[in-house]
Give the backbone structure.
Amino acid sequence: MTPECIFCRIAANELPSTLLYEDEHGIVFSDLHPKAPTHWLIVPRRHIERLSDLTDAERPLIGHLLLVVNRMARQAGIDEAGYRVVINCGPAGGQTVSHLHLHLLGGRAMHWPPG
Ligand code: 5GP
Ligand code: ZN
């Protein structure tokens, strides 16, 4: 755990969140500033700063997190319609929290024009 990291603190229950799912590897909670009707964050418990830090050692972990995305999309009822999964990496990628996370976005059309 990295004490100054908000997602580590949420995972450790030191900060509140709308926890939606947890297992030994990761947690899921609602984004504080949702960009879509469903905007959930899938977050590994372990502090990994960014996607580009992943190595072969994290191959099972990232696979697991993607399966959690699937499960959560079903739970949100957006699996049939479809959804978007986003990982921002680093400052130029728009990453603002330096703890790896996957955004699950759905419940509205992600493209323009919709339909
Ligand atoms: P990033 O920009 O790093 O890809 O995404 C960080 C996301 O975390 C943003 O969408 C932001 O709204 C969300 N966020 C930042 N701080 C908190 C927080 O304390 N609690 C929750 N639930 N979400 C947060
Ligand atoms: Zn962290």
Notes: The pocket of guanosine-5'-monophosphate (ligand 1) is lined by residues 6, 17, 29-33, 88, 94-97 (CB under 6 Å).
